[in-house]
Amino acid sequence: MEKNFRPSPNSFKNTFCIFNEESLEKIKDLKIQYQSKAGSSYYYTNLGMYRVSNHWGRLANSKWRLIPLEPETASKFKLGFASWESFYPDNDTDKLYYLEADYTTNTVNYQHRNNPNYDNKAVLRTSFETTKKIKQIRNLFNLTSWAKYYEYDDLNVLRKSIIDQLIYTNTTLEEIKNLI
Prior knowledge:
The chain has three helices and ten strands, in the order E-E-E-E-E-E-E-E-E-E-H-H-H. The radius of gyration is 19 Å and the shape is elongated. The strands form two sheets. Strands 1, 2, 3, 4, 5, 6, 7 and 8 form an eight-stranded mixed sheet that branches. Strands 9-10 form a two-stranded antiparallel sheet. It is an alpha+beta fold.
């Protein structure tokens, strides 16, 4: 059994992290090391943190996202694991985030610039700018009313063209729409 590892209480303030969902079996031999007022349980190991929670996303002063198992589990409480190297700094003023669109599932997510997969092509933005672009891209994915003002052969091609410009340039949505 592994010796108790306990990080500093302030280690997770103002952080961004992506957790991967794991089977609850992973923590069967671990002891809860912290229980939040909101009901989340935390288990620390030398490799990283396990978190059992029914809420993910914006947490107080941090942004923690969970990538669910495939197929997705039915339980509302999910166990997520993140290595210590997966916690990146977060604040409201620095350009820390870039966007990734998945054209197969018509979804968009933000990633941190310290992510080892960042290729330096997508524009980095502040949290506020990132939130605004995500909303615009989700509307482009989910709505079609905006497209009636344009001539196009394939809506998906038009949609991808606009979304790629939102991700890879600083051009505003209004400017992009005026250029089409």
